[in-house]
Design brief:
Layout: H1 17-40, H2 43-52, E1 59-62, H3 64-67, E2 77-80, E3 85-88, H4 96-115, E4 130-132, H5 134-156, H6 168-182, H7 197-219, E5 225-227, H8 231-237, H9 263-275, H10 287-292, H11 298-314
Parallel strand pairs: 1-3, 4-5
Antiparallel strand pairs: 2-3
Helix pairs in contact: 1-2, 1-4, 4-5, 5-7, 7-9
The chain binds zinc ion.
């Protein structure tokens, strides 16, 4: 399925950064209140978002420092877990539809962080010394993006928006269609470097893990235990807004999911696994098992992770 070319508008270079910012700030302030009615008119996905997103406490902000950096076509905005904010870049402030697209996409990421402990089971955010293996972090990021992209796509084009949002049969039908589209949703979005989004996200994830491993080796002596995802983590990742985009029911969820990885990406993951003394990632304990060894339940671990992330911000 083709994802929309929503960033085709190029910013005229005659504007200075600050005057561009002022112009876009005006658009942002004008369009943000209209987003709610757009959601309301966008069927079950938009209406469920209006119910669920406010519970995360996340806010969308326009920040001058980041404004100029977020110009990459994929990064019209991003969700910052540490600030619990959606940061909006200039690439999506030329047209209000672009802003709505990004707001919805990043709101899905906010929901993932607030419902799936696997999002924060990494060296930076985990409140316990347990973190996902490099391969599982790669799987994690691809599933996060498939969930966010496929739901945003259906939201943006208003699929089934004429049907009642609370109709259970309607939600089921929508889930069936999302399942069909989610596996390939990252395949068609191309970048300047010729990579599709799927490849780009995996490179991005691996680079992040490499940087984190370097930092850890240099400055931090925590002994981490590496864990993997399981079927319920994968189900949960596809289940934002209570409409699953990977499986019809929880009992059908499988691990590992089918994710294509290039030989070069595999090589870099193997190097990371060696650094972390992981012989066989599939044989690792699951995240749920790791949490249990600390006599914690899933929800408490998730709550502790979110509190830890927030505390790091408060301490500057
Ligand atoms: Zn995303």
């Amino acid at each position: 399925m083709q994802t929309p070319d929503i960033f085709s508008d190029k910013t005229p270079s005659i504007f200075s950064a600050s005057s561009r910012y002022a112009r876009y700030k005006k658009n942002f302030d004008l369009w943000l209140p209209e987003y709610e009615s757009f959601c309301n008119e966008s069927g079950v996905l938009g209406q469920r978002l209006l119910q669920e997103y406010p519970k995360t406490g996340c806010k969308a902000v326009l920040n001058f420092e980041e404004f100029n950096q977020i110009t990459n076509e994929l990064l019209g905005g991003h969700y910052s877990p540490t600030k619990n904010e959606i940061h909006i870049g200039q690439a999506c402030l030329e047209r209000k539809e672009n802003l709505f697209y990004i707001l919805f996409h990043e709101s899905i990421h906010a929901l993932q962080y607030h419902h799936c402990a696997s999002c924060s089971a990494n060296m930076s955010y985990s409140s316990l010394p347990i973190v996902l293996s490099p391969m599982d972090q790669v799987i994690q990021i691809i599933l996060e993006e498939r969930d966010a992209w496929v739901k945003t796509h259906y939201f943006y084009y208003g699929f089934h928006c004429d049907l009642p949002a609370e109709d259970a049969g309607h939600a089921k039908e929508l889930s069936r269609q999302l399942i069909k589209s989610s596996a390939g949703i990252l395949d068609h979005e191309t970048h300047n470097d010729g990579k599709n989004s799927h490849e780009w996200y995996i490179d991005y994830a691996i680079k992040g893990i490499e940087d984190m491993a370097d930092w850890h080796e240099e400055y931090n002596d925590t002994e981490f235990e590496y864990v993997r995802l399981d079927q319920s983590d994968i189900w949960r990742l596809g289940n934002t807004l209570n409409i699953n985009c990977f499986f019809k029911q929880k009992t059908e969820a499988i691990y590992p999911p089918n994710i294509e990885i290039t030989d070069e990406q595999k090589r870099r993951i193997t190097v990371l696994e060696k650094r972390m003394a992981i012989d066989d990632y599939a044989a690792l304990p699951t995240l749920a098992e790791g949490i249990k060894t600390y006599e914690l339940d899933y929800q408490s671990y998730l709550k502790n992770n979110l509190a830890k992330i927030q505390k790091e911000v408060d301490q500057g």
